[in-house]
Automatic annotation (TrEMBL):
Residues 1-112 form the Response regulatory domain. Keywords: DNA-binding, Phosphoprotein, Transcription, Transcription regulation. The modification 4-aspartylphosphate is found at D41. SUPFAM superfamilies: C-terminal effector domain of the bipartite response regulators (SSF46894), CheY-like (SSF52172). InterPro entries: CheY-like_superfamily, NreC/VraR/RcsB-like_REC, Sig_transdc_resp-reg_C-effctor, Sig_transdc_resp-reg_receiver, Tscrpt_reg_LuxR_C, WalR-like, WH-like_DNA-bd_sf. The keyword Phosphoprotein applies. This is DNA-binding response regulator. Pfam families: GerE, Response_reg. GO terms for molecular function: DNA binding. The keyword Transcription regulation applies. It comes from Virgisporangium ochraceum. One of its GO terms (biological process) is phosphorelay signal transduction system.
Amino acid sequence: MRAGLVSLLEGLGHSVVAAVGDGDALVAAAREHRPDLVITDVRMPPDFKDEGLRAAVRLRASDSRAAVLVLSQYAATAYAAELLGPTGQAGVGYLLKDRVGEVADFADVVARVAAGDTVIDPDVVRQLLSRQRTANPLDRLTPREREVLAQMAEGRSNPQVARVLGISDAAVAKHIGNIFMKLDLPAEDGHRRVLAVLKYLRS
């Protein structure tokens, strides 16, 4: 998988500065090379549990500039929520490995996360939507506001949300404003979009 990713990324015009096999080596290489993007599997040696995820979380906690894309075999919502926990200014992504084969979409995700966007796999978002929610701030949202928030969780910008849902940019902005208000996210907080997605993922 690692060799295949290197070949794919280089074929897309990217330079791969390191390809490593465990979480400690990943953190060390990222700190040495300061790449535009770190891509890791959730599971890495020695135990093949969540070492890659832990490395990504550790890296983001120590360096707010570190953009990280985590690949997973399964749509584990807890992993996505934990990855988003240490919010920084750089991008973060959580993607199922199956998506890598969809080269054009994968290339788009790589570019977006490296540019600072937050991208969550659509299957993870669908799992979150299917959950039963009780005594939850998200219960305050209208069905349309939930749709807008789901699109935000997938990392889409306001114009992209407007196109997907077939509504105007102004309507999207109004819905997002309502979401922030209903989730009690203060206007002075510069990370309200990320905080809204976090509330969504953790609900």
